[in-house]
Specification:
Distance between the termini: 49 Å
Number of strands: 10
Shape: globular
CATH topology of the largest domain: Rossmann fold
Number of domains: 2
Helix content: 25-40%
Largest sheet: 7 strands, mixed
Strand order of the largest sheet: 1-2-5-4-3-6-7
Bound molecules: pantoate
Oligomer: single chain
CATH architecture of the largest domain: 3-Layer(aba) Sandwich
CATH superfamily of the largest domain: HUPs
Length: about 290
């Protein structure tokens, strides 16, 4: 059943697929979609602002997608703030918010999954098996319901942007992907909804990810091209911070295949993932 709720100005919050499809069919084109899991921060808002500048209708989806979480505790603890999110989106001139329930997205009997192959098995895929199957499936569904002309993603989730580019290409989806730069705190920490889960002590240590990436970047800028040397440099910086409990990976990988490179010739992504207590942090920079 259609459940639409109107809050001041012009934003419409819709939870049913049918109603959302209709609203998007009737909306003035082009449509820009910003897919999110809520708990919005300035990184999301930069995507919304770009979508507002590029399109006549801006749609934001808010859905904490259970299919991309392996760990049920992680899913339960994922930050949620629907009232705060709607307030921010209203103030940023968003037209439509799609906020479906889990049952609306995955009704009983749901059984079709989108698997993007080897790209999804590297880096994050090793540590979060099934994660990108969940992401690719929900993004496909969001695209099908809202039919956007453009969709906006943050470089912060670097592998996700590569996976979604592959998804769009392989399945001939008629949507332009726009990848926006990572937004950082003044001390370099990449904005993430998960940052609120850091203790004050962990928060103080967390910019080490950015420092590690910057050191690799500076070495590359000074002429170093060996992948191993750049990986080693970033790893040493991470290891120098005792509040990093474990390092999941330090990668210097080709931007298209995500294969580790021996030498940096084309565009590569340097990415890191660490565990700090119960919080997992990721970050990346592109060498180009
Ligand atoms: O980046 C995210 O917030 C999520 O992975 C996405 C793209 C909204 C899919 O659930």
């Amino acid at each position: 059943m259609a459940q639409a709720q109107t809050i001041p100005d012009r934003i419409r919050v819709i939870s049913s697929n049918e109603e959302m499809s209709r609203a998007c069919r009737e909306a003035v084109k082009p449509i820009g979609l910003v897919p999110t899991m809520g708990a919005l921060h300035a990184g999301h808002l930069s995507l919304v602002e770009q979508a507002r500048a590029d399109n006549l209708t801006v749609v934001v989806s808010i859905f904490v997608n259970p299919a991309q979480f392996g760990d049920q505790v992680d899913l339960a603890n994922y930050p949620r703030d629907m009232a705060g999110d709607l307030d921010l989106l209203r103030r940023h001139g968003v037209d439509l918010v799609y906020a479906p329930t889990v049952e609306e997205v995955y009704p009983p009997g749901f059984n079709t999954w989108v698997d993007v192959g080897p790209l999804a098995e590297k880096l994050e895929g090793i540590h979060r098996p099934g994660h990108f199957r969940g992401v690719a499936t929900v993004v496909s569904k969001l695209f099908n319901v809202t039919r956007p002309n453009r969709a906006y993603f943050g470089q912060k989730d670097g592998q996700q942007t590569v996976v979604i580019q592959k998804l769009v290409k392989d399945l001939d989806m008629d949507v332009e992907l726009v990848v926006m730069p990572t937004i950082r705190e003044p001390d370099g920490l990449a904005l993430s909804s998960r940052n609120v889960q850091l203790s004050p002590d962990q928060r103080e240590a967390a910019p080490v990810l950015h420092r590690a990436l910057c050191q690799a970047y500076e070495q590359w800028r000074d002429g170093e091209r060996r992948g191993d040397t750049l990986r080693e440099t970033a790893r040493k910086v991470l290891q120098s911070e005792p509040r990093v409990d474990s390092i999941d990976y330090v990668s210097v990988a080709d931007m298209t295949t995500l294969g580790e490179v021996e030498r940096v010739e084309d565009r590569v992504m340097v990415s890191v993932a660490v565990q700090m207590g119960s919080v997992r942090l990721i970050d990346n920079i592109v060498l180009e």
